[in-house]
Design brief:
Mean pLDDT: 95
Shape: globular
CATH architecture of one domain: Alpha-Beta Complex
Strand content: 15-25%
Strand order of the largest sheet: 1-3-2-8-10-9-16-17-13-11-12
Number of helices: 14
Number of strands: 17
Structural class: alpha+beta
CATH class of one domain: Alpha Beta
Radius of gyration: 21 Å
CATH topology of one domain: Amidase signature (AS) enzymes
Distance between the termini: 7 Å
Oligomer: single chain
Largest sheet: 11 strands, mixed
Low-confidence stretches: 1-7
Length: 456
């Protein structure tokens, strides 16, 4: 695994901001160092698609000038971050990982959540790799290549926000932005061993983020510590963070049934340890999880296919072949099928909300096990090998249907590769998830260990 090195890690987001605000480091030195590090090391991981060098350095110079004048540059002063390549960055073309959009004019303004972060002193330094149009769980892109897992470059990083997770895991930057429709934050966060948050549906503005399936899409952060994740989410949310409840007061349950099958034995042991620490022996079942996964899949396919149908009729061959075939299939789904899926969705949402009348946090695996190899992109489900790209969302897709917040917490696995735990809350109850995550981090049961410069 990783090895110590004498080159300084850029630090957590809150550490960088404290140093820059106190004058111990300049924002320019932080940003130029991060850009140099990306240029030197990302060739191994392929997490970055574009570096916003001149614009980022200019923004850093402005922050240093504000500090010199005694002005407050914001709570994230000088903190570098990257964005999944579906967020608008003023002056850049938003491609959503596709050739199809490369001829579009540059964005005239930042996406809303990006603007909120930069208003508090954070600096967007790069766009990050993704599955084309966010349709995939592996960040294998015919146009921009495959993002490799920093913990083992022979393995997948997960997707579709794989570049975002890998950039944090590689220690290139302390936080990044991704999007999650059926698991696209939670899965790569789990496989790369970083913290990730899928917020409550509708809580964060999606203005300036290229859509996939509008009735499921959310945007959210990934970070190297719970504290960074919470601070970044608060800025994206545009309000002060909610107070954290006492973990001892929370009613915590483990999801069994669908979420207890097909799991790697080492993962089961890790979850057992977490539940012991949280002093919970409660196991409950989420009704009709398999149907929930199917409904989420169908709604995503239909909405994505509908969004792209006109362009597919004109420029189908410009799409990544794997994306093209699924979008076309989604566009051809019978309307009656979609109606049935939406009816089930309403029923399922009611059932999961009923669970939250008796429980505050539900615990479930994010994946069946560690990251699959790139040259053998399969996972075992029901005793047989199936495509990782299509099936990594086994445990994330059902939860997506209800629109509830989910925090992905990084766990260790005997193989040395990371795993991820889904902490699931009621709508608007992100604070409960942060409280449990902070306790698991404090106890050493969940933690991100980014690679440092010069590491493997």
């Amino acid at each position: 695994m990783t090895q110590a090195h004498d080159t300084q890690h850029p630090g957590t987001a809150l550490q960088i901001a404290q140093d820059v605000r106190a004058g111990r480091r300049s924002a320019v030195s932080v940003i130029t160092g991060v850009i140099a590090d990306m240029e030197a090391r990302d060739t191994r991981f392929n997490s970055v698609t574009r570096i916003f060098g001149p614009a980022a350095v200019a923004r850093a110079e402005g922050i240093d000038q504000r500090i010199a004048r005694g002005e407050d540059p914001g709570v994230l002063a000088g903190v570098p971050f990257g964005v999944k390549d579906l967020f608008d960055i003023a002056g850049e073309v938003t491609t959503a990982g596709s050739l199809v959009l490369r001829g579009n004019p540059p964005a005239t303004r930042d996406a809303t959540v990006v603007a909120r972060l930069q208003a508090q002193g954070a600096i967007a330094v790069a766009s990050l790799n993704m599955d084309e149009f966010a349709y995939g769980f592996s960040t294998e892109n015919a146009h921009t290549g495959t993002t490799r897992n920093p913990h083992d470059p022979a393995c997948l990083a997960g997707g579709s926000s794989g570049g975002s997770a890998a950039a944090v895991a590689a220690g290139l930057m302390p936080f990044t932005l991704g999007s999650d429709t059926n698991g696209s934050i939670r899965l790569p966060a789990a496989l790369c061993g970083v913290w990730g948050l899928k917020p409550t549906f509708g809580r964060l503005p999606r203005d300036g983020a290229y859509p996939f399936a509008a009735s499921l899409d959310v945007v959210g952060p990934m970070a190297d510590t719970v504290e960074d994740l919470r601070a970044v989410f608060a800025v994206m949310d545009g309000r002060a963070p909610d107070a954290l409840p006492d973990v001892a007061s929370l009613r915590i349950a483990r999801l069994g049934g669908w979420f207890a099958r097909n799991i790697d034995a080492g993962f089961v042991a890790a979850i057992d340890e977490v539940m012991r620490h949280l002093n919970s022996t409660t196991v409950i079942e989420l009704p009709e999880a398999a149907r929930a996964r199917a409904a989420s899949f169908l709604i995503t396919a239909a909405e994505g296919g509908s969004l792209h149908l006109a362009r597919l009729r004109q420029r189908a061959m410009q799409y990544d072949p794997a994306t093209r075939s699924r979008l076309m299939a989604g566009a051809m789904l019978p309307s009656a099928t979609l109606v049935q899926a939406q009816r089930f969705r309403s029923w399922f949402r009611t059932r999961i909300h009923e669970l939250f009348s008796q429980h505050d946090v539900l615990v479930a695996p994010a994946t069946v096990g560690p990251a699959p190899r790139i040259d053998q992109p399969t996972i075992m489900v029901e005793g047989r090998e199936v495509s990782a790209r299509a099936n990594l969302g086994l445990f994330t897709q059902p939860i997506s249907l209800a629109g509830v917040p989910v925090l992905s917490a990084p766990l260790a696995h005997p193989s040395g590769l990371p795993l991820g735990l889904q902490l699931i809350g009621a709508p608007g109850a992100e604070a409960a998830l942060f409280a449990v995550a902070a306790e698991l981090q404090r106890a050493g049961l969940a933690r991100c260990t980014p690679l440092t410069m010069g590491s493997k």
